[in-house]
Amino acid sequence: MSTNPPSPSDPASGPQIGADEWVRRSGERNTGPGGVVGFLQRVADRTPHILLLVAFLGFACAIPFLTTNVYVVGVATDTMLYVLLAVGLNVAVGWAGMLDLGYVIFYGFAAYLFAELSSAHYGIHWATWQSVPLVIAATIGLGFLLSLPSLRLSGDYFAIVMLFFLQIFNNFTANGYTWDWFGLGHPHDITGGPTGITNIDPWRLFGHALNPNKPQDYLWIASAGVFVIVILLASVNKSRTGRAWRALREDPLAANLMGMPVKWLGLLAIAVGAGVAGFAGTVNASYYQGVFPDAFTLQLLILIYAMVILGGAGSLGGVIFGAVAINVLLEVLTTPNHARWVFYAAVLLGLLAKVRPWKVLAAVLAGLVGFGLAMHAIAAAISARWVDGPIAVGPTAFSTHGFFATLIRHWVVLPKGTYEVSNYKPGNYAFVIVIAMVLTCTVLKGWKRYVLLVPTIWLGAFVWETDLVNQAATTRYLLVGALLITLMATRPNGLFGQQRVEIV
Amino acid sequence: MSEQAADRKPLLELQKVSKSFGGLNVIDDLDIHVNEHEIVSVIGPNGAGKTTLFNLITGVYRPDGGDILLDGQSLIGLRPHKITERGVARTFQTLRLFLNMTVKENVMAAQYVRTKATIVEQSLQLPRARREEREMNAFAEEKLGFFGERLMGYRWNQPAYSLSYANRRRLEIARATATRPRILLLDEPAAGMNPVETHEITELIGKLREEGGFTILLIEHDMHVVEGISDRVVALDHGVKIAEGSFDAVATDPRVVEAYLGASATKTK
User: Which distant-in-sequence residues (6+ apart) come within 8 Å of A87 by Cβ?
Assistant: First the structure.
């Protein structure tokens, strides 16, 4: 907005009703989020979006040159697949406002269809340039087909039907091999059952096979896909169909009465999203050299939804950020030492962001330090065994030295033998108490809450160090979930989502 | 004007239209016609069936009986967007703007029905998509310009929720006109407006006919508006037409007075 806007209305020309300064400024008051994210968003708004996209994808494609670590490149490739999925889901969920809970079907369907066309399962080995367009077209077709219930159902009811379709799909891929499809008296195996279809041909472009053991090939293919798809979708978004989708999200009845075929637009949104998932599915099948029924379940759907919602449904840049943030975070959290950083940083940032004024914040922090030291001293006075535990991470206990580890060992009580298998687990009991304390915290008001906050956080750290940090597989979802809840509480429209207003 | 208009063929014609909800006859055997270039006002106490009438014409509800003709062709059974395509556009008594879209987007979205570029053409930004986009933009600016300074300049890129109540009503009219209708159905355009704004909206409705060339069917409670612009007034009560004619004739009709004020009012008068 320019600093010197045109004068709302010349006072001489007529009455000033509805044209005053307050009304003129209401947009500025309402739309801009504050803080660091707001600053980032303003920077992003000023930079041409295509530059941001090129910078992001350029960095992603350069990762194989920056590191020789295959694991890192593999994570980058996975992340790029999630970016594709999030961008596709955003079409139906973010733009058209359709609750598409069957989205993962399209991903799985495309992966399976590609596998059937490029493996020894049926002995078909189509060329990539034939199979990929066919799979994408078939997935778009499936998108139209499965969204047909939206002609009759709306909102939650449609969502439940789509979820039902997802369960059918899961059942079909897992158990379909036992079904007698054609009445031949013996089962016909379409999907390979629980073991799926393996040994899928790699992508083959211009005579060059993309080696799945070198993830960079698939990273580049996925990045190229993101580039093309995001540009195409951004063009649609600023054209008539994109506007009609937004109108549909805002008010389906009004959109219909203003000449928009809302049912068709809904089918179209789901089908377009399905097409994006279809492309991702073909890359997925080749990259993992196999398709398996448990890869396309509700859990994946929830993960993609979390990415879209965290980034801000409706914002292309936002959902890309959400996909990268969540997938990278989940990977980081698989290593306990990294997870530990995330945990303490999250606790500290949460306190900094939420505890006001600063005097209370200082008191809570000082209380935390003091409480920990006091508990440590008490435990040490009772028995040395109680504070004798090593600061252990991973399968093997390691360094009890180092600055950070020393701090933790003198603040948290670490009983001896904490990490030994089948040992007495004080962490489990403490976990239950922590949950009760957190719930109490949400009920209490004023200073009582801050007083209770101190032991809660300390006991939380105790549970974390003695129990959770070693169970990365479950802990990481717990932590991401907690982060999501905190973020959504402070920013209901996602990090980069536009703040929306509903006034009746 | 009204005598000239009466000679013409009706643009919109309702023939013995009925609608009931669970045994309650909301519209009962109603005949209404609106001639080309005419402004017809529908008045009646709350619950008389005025908004239901609009919902029947625009296809939100399907009538139980009777026929609705636009230029001689039946609208019965058409879905709402098809009826809009035929040339019927409306505003809402309770505003239904696309609040989180910008002012200009609201108007451009309503041109969906008048544009043809497919999603493939849009995604590749092919010539037809680009040309239509330019035309939509220019047309939206023209339609917003209809309201003088109210919806111009910096307001174009503000979200619709930032507009004042009166400007929202104006934007709804702009959005309806952007579908390029032949007949405009305005549902209480002056509701919630102060006297100055009411006066302004009255002039605006006249201007919509004179400059925009629209035929207008109007629901309005404010008798100043009705008196100022109507060629003909139709009074409804309990879904039945109880009077029709010039404003003066309808306003003094004993049945209308009774409908608004009760039976005793007619006696004392």
Answer: A226, A229, A230, A233, A276, A316, A319, A320, A323
